[in-house]
Amino acid sequence: MEDTTKDLLSQAQAVINLAASQEDLENIRIGFLGRNGKMNELMAGLLHVSPAQRGELGRVLNQAKREIELLLSKKEEDLLSASSNLYFDPTEPSIKPNLGHLHLITYAAREIMDIFERIGFVRVRHPEIDSDYYAFEALNMPAGHPARDEWETFYIADNLVITPHTSNGQVREMEKGYLPIKMINIARCGRRQSDVSHSQTFHQFEGLYIDKGVSIANLKGVLEYFARNFYGSGRQTRLRPYDFRFTEPSFEVDVTCGLCGGSGCSFCKGGWLELGGAGMVHPKVLRAGGIDPRKYSGFAFGWGVERTYMMKAELSIPDIRILYKNDLNFLEQF
Ligand code: DAH
């Protein structure tokens, strides 16, 4: 009878191992431990053994019964935890990922580009680290020329600069050899400067239009078009004479202040805000790019993306450097 009990136990072990559901387990329980189950059958057999053996056999049987109970409850737990891992409810609301957004400067660059694309300008890219030649020399600023000082340039090798402006793209674009040119070069620039309106890292967009018969009137028209589309229909522009080595004549471009509407306030200079430089491309620059100034003329302008964007009336950003601080309190407003 002891052997039969052992057989019963290993039988129970085998089927419990194979059980795949709670229902299987319940059937096994009934088969082994139920009223008419195998265990009770064996118990009934005790009546036929001698009273001397009965006690010992009874203990063996009870032990086997407890083991089967244990095996059953262990398997039950296993099945439960396996099924909870598989639980998948496709209708359950998902955990929302934290969505970020593009940086303000990227939005600004895209908005600026959209406006120029509508009148046929094409976005191009030129190096943000470039040789002294494209940043200065080809722009009519030979080595040692005092005009270079204005650009507060980071030299990273004898002949290599972090471009202090996007004008390095002018001669590079001309060298491609296609005419007419109608480009906007947007790039990161660097200068040794830092205060509320200057940051060491900033962006510029450079426009260059070269064709036969391009005049100041065309420049003025494009600037006005840009100002109206970017700032709103009420804004006006003006050209102030200035001096750049790579344009002749050269101008500073101003836009009427969006806060006071041009009458003058603490935000502007007598009703005008300064956008940046522009001018008619200097014949020497055209020649450096392999273009004959007797046949072709062109205008160029180069402005700070940050500055241009901050001049929108609805933005009041007190310090340009906040754009680079990764301050979420600031960035999340946009
Ligand atoms: N590169 C000049 C600067 O960074 C701005 C500029 C002036 C660009 C005149 C031009 C231009 O294209 O024609 O201050």
TrEMBL record:
**For this protein, what is the EC number?**
6.1.1.20
- Membrane-spanning parts: none
The answer on whether this UniProt entry bears the keyword Heme reads: no
Q: Which InterPro entries match?
A: aa-tRNA-synth_II, aa-tRNA-synth_II/BPL/LPL, Phe-tRNA_ligase_II_N, Phenylalanyl-tRNA_Synthase, tRNA-bd_arm
Any GO MF annotation of the entry: tRNA binding
| A cellular component annotation (GO) from this entry | cytoplasm
Q: Which reaction is the catalytic activity of this chain?
A: tRNA(Phe) + L-phenylalanine + ATP = L-phenylalanyl-tRNA(Phe) + AMP + diphosphate + H(+)
Q: Which Pfam families match?
A: Phe_tRNA-synt_N, tRNA-synt_2d
**Which domain of life does the UniProt lineage start with?**
Bacteria
Name the UniProt key words of this record, in alphabetical order: Aminoacyl-tRNA synthetase, ATP-binding, Ligase, Nucleotide-binding, Protein biosynthesis
Q: Name one GO biological process term.
A: phenylalanyl-tRNA aminoacylation
Q: What positions does the domain Aminoacyl-transfer RNA synthetases class-II family profile occupy? A: 110-311
Q: What is this protein called?
A: phenylalanine--tRNA ligase
From what organism does this protein derive? candidate division WWE3 bacterium CG08_land_8_20_14_0_20_43_13
Q: Upper lineage ranks?
A: Bacteria, Katanobacteria
